[in-house]
Specification:
Alpha/Beta hydrolase fold; hydrolase activity; eight-stranded mixed sheet; alpha/beta; 36% helix; globular; AB_hydrolase_1
């Protein structure tokens, strides 16, 4: 009696079709994996990389950190300040040195050093970058430049991640600290959910998603901000339309002269600069700044936080909450100011003098 089976009834071409489908899905997976992988950085000094144009130090792990010095000579300085630049900037973007009046610079003996954060301009990338590693980079820079046992730190915007870390990891090295419009991590655990959610929702929809991706799926950050199907981060895209009115006015006054070095900023690639900023800044931190203790209980130094109340990049409500949780921080809120208020006339003088002189401290 003739009997049939499922195998014998199957079309001879079914096995080939399954293999073709398998090959197709493997190709799609490989293509997707390749698309989400960032290109390797173009290291400065490598055969195909950018040139090295300024001094650099070699760090503990073999990386190099580029820096530039300002103000009075280092060995004659009374006050030595390390300046940490913000996102999409570099060591040359030091408004605190460029706009500081000669009277204050000479009168207070001010020396400043600004450096390229890892991956920016001429500093080697650090794919393992964390807030703590940034603080240790700053400490090592200070040691190799012989800045002494204590020094000051000023951190602007995304440079806040390194500045908060200095308060946490190298407090014994700090003579005083100033945070200027520091970017805030919406996932710091001590923020009440309603306050952080309200602030988060003040961002444009595309920026909300870009920040979410950096926090929940950091491995997707490069693809998310590089694809052309929908807009990624406004900061990565250099979308000036998102700025406040006061910021746009400042940008207009500054003009193109401010960014003569703009080509250097991302010359090693976008991923180890702006994307890494987002991954570190909005990732999961080892500590919450709102749990920090007063570094200067005897008023031998001071910590300051400056914020404009019309800043569309960093919500003022979150800075107010931080200042409330940390009453030992001197909080300075500038009415009508946006994110670029340090470039407004007289602001740098006020910020630096307030940090360096006890009679300049004000709430």
């Amino acid at each position: 009696m003739a009997t049939g089976s499922t195998d014998s009834a199957r079309s001879p071409s079914s096995g080939v079709l399954q293999k073709l489908l398998l090959v197709f899905f493997v190709c799609i997976a490989a293509s997707t994996y390749k698309a989400i992988q960032p290109p390797p950085p173009k290291l400065c000094g490598s055969p195909d990389g950018p040139s090295i144009t300024g001094p650099r130090i070699k760090l503990r792990d073999g990386r190099h950190l580029a820096y530039i010095e300002h103000g009075v000579p280092r060995d004659e300085a009374t006050h030595k300040i390390v300046v940490v630049h913000g996102s999409d900037s570099c060591r040359h973007d030091n408004a605190f040195a460029a706009l500081l009046s000669p009277d204050i610079k000479e009168g207070l003996g001010v020396y400043m050093v600004s450096f390229d954060r890892p991956g920016y301009a001429e500093s080697d990338p650090d794919p393992n970058r964390t807030p703590k590693s940034l603080a240790l980079d700053i400490e090592e820079l200070a040691d190799q430049l012989s800045l002494g046992t204590k020094f000051y730190v000023i951190g602007y915007s995304m440079g806040g991640q390194a500045t908060w870390a200095c308060l946490k990891y190298i407090p014994h090295r700090l003579a005083g600290v100033t945070l200027v419009a520091p970017v805030v991590n919406y996932w710091w655990k001590n923020f009440p959910l309603d306050i952080s959610t309200e602030a988060f929702n003040q961002q444009a929809r595309n920026d909300q998603w870009a920040v979410r991706v950096a926090h929940y799926a950091p491995w997707l950050t490069h693809w998310w901000n590089s694809q052309s199907w929908f807009p990624g981060s406004s900061v990565v895209a250099r979308n000036l339309g998102m700025l406040s009115k006061s910021d746009k006015e400042i940008m207009f006054k500054l003009g193109a002269a401010r960014r003569q070095h703009e080509a250097q900023i991302r010359q090693q690639g976008t991923h180890e600069t702006l994307h890494r900023d987002m991954i570190v800044g909005f990732g999961t931190w080892e500590f919450d700044p709102m749990e920090l203790e007063n570094l200067f209980p005897n008023n031998e130094g001071s910590v300051h936080l400056w914020q404009g109340d019309d800043d569309v990049l960093v919500p003022v409500t979150l800075q107010r909450y931080i200042a409330q949780k940390l009453p030992w921080i001197h909080y300075h809120e500038i009415p009508g100011a946006g994110h670029l208020f340090p470039f407004a006339p007289g602001m740098v003088n006020n910020i630096v003098k307030t940090l360096l002189t006890s009679d300049g401290v004000k709430n």
